[in-house]
Amino acid sequence: MKTRYDILIVGGGMVGSALACALGNSGLSVAVLERQLPAGFEPSQPHDLRVSALSIASERFLQNIGAWGGIKDRRSCPYRRMKVWEKSSTAAATEFDATAIGYDHLGHIVENRLIQIALLERLKAFDNIDLISPAPTTRIDYVPGATLVQLEDGRELVGRLVVAADGGDSKVRKAAGIGVTKWDYEQHALVAGVTTAYGQQDITWQQFTPTGPLAFLPLSGHNASLVWYNTPNEVKRLLALPEEQFLQQLHAVFPSELGHITEIQGRSSFPLRRQHAQQYCHEGVVLVGDAAHMIHPLAGQGVNIGLLDAAALAQTLLAAHQCGESISDLSMLERFEKQRRRHNLLMMQVMDGFYRIFSNDIGPLKLLRNAGLGLAGHLPPARNRVMEFAMGLRGELPDLAR
């Protein structure tokens, strides 16, 4: 027996579940298929290694769909300032402060799992949304006017529209025959959760070094997330070190701004690559989040552009539904793609530019980038543009993110 829905969202992570919440009470029947639900939250739990820097635009979207309270009720860390500098330069660090443009913070650092928990909790309030988990898919068949998704337990679901929110290795995208353009940065990011002697901080910073950036993301209390970009072999070596030796390496390499590390809560790594789908939509299928694009995590914008995908797609689908237009119509989905591809491509190019400029030791280029940082920090128009970019407030925003 086949169960029919208007929309099947394959992937109930941050982006997929946010899209579902944005479609709550819409009159559209929605199923969210999630392979595995996140573990529950207890305040005494150590912080997770995977965190995101949520922008102001993302916060507004999460507020508008009723999920922000569930995040704030658990734990998050607002940051008001961000600071960048180059280790080998004598130039002063460049600092950006939200108060300079009338805001009390630039964003929040939040564990990915807690964002997902709050969103999944929120979507349970909507009668038109079913959460199906565990729901590993075994087959996806596209036929005119509908898509059939078969689950591992034999259940068959049919949707007028299927949304691929199932990550960078998306099964839905592959089944639709949508290719990707890839770029390997030949670097890995080592992530370490630590406890420091300093109390909760309101600043995030990055120091650029010849081997790659070092980044600090504040978490609640004395906790922080450290990101160390380096070659795959060096990251592998660091992960294999005994804890005491790894701690010594952190103290030797990270700048004094970090303070004394009192505990290492965990460490992990992931490869850095850029990936962009050659198209975001096909008849009856549309891509969002990592299924559509993966960018360099240098400025922590990956989840933010994914959430803006969700906001824009929800806005497009709701408008089509209210006008009696088919939600699987290709021309309607292409309107969504046109809006989001332009924004996402710009973000990818900016992140690529930062990566190439700061991973190059050519003398004139070093002078140019230090001069650029100095100008960005001291000229109010340039400084404000950088902050608005980091806050997700530049460019065309979906109404749900305003």
Automatic annotation (TrEMBL):
Belongs to the UbiH/COQ6 family. GO terms for biological process: ubiquinone biosynthetic process. Gene3D superfamilies: FAD/NAD(P)-binding domain. InterPro entries: FAD-bd, FAD/NAD-bd_sf, Ubi_Hdrlase_CS, UbiH/COQ6, UbiH/COQ6_monooxygenase. Its cofactor is FAD. One of its GO terms (cellular component) is ubiquinone biosynthesis complex. Pathway: Cofactor biosynthesis; ubiquinone biosynthesis. Signal peptide: none annotated. Component of the Ubi complex metabolon, which regroups five ubiquinone biosynthesis proteins (UbiE, UbiF, UbiG, UbiH and UbiI) and two accessory factors (UbiK and the lipid-binding protein UbiJ). Keywords: FAD, Flavoprotein, Monooxygenase, Oxidoreductase. SUPFAM superfamilies: FAD/NAD(P)-binding domain. Residues 5-343 form the FAD-binding domain. This is 2-octaprenyl-3-methyl-6-methoxy-1,4-benzoquinol hydroxylase. One of its GO terms (molecular function) is oxidoreductase activity, acting on paired donors, with incorporation or reduction of molecular oxygen. The keyword Oxidoreductase applies.
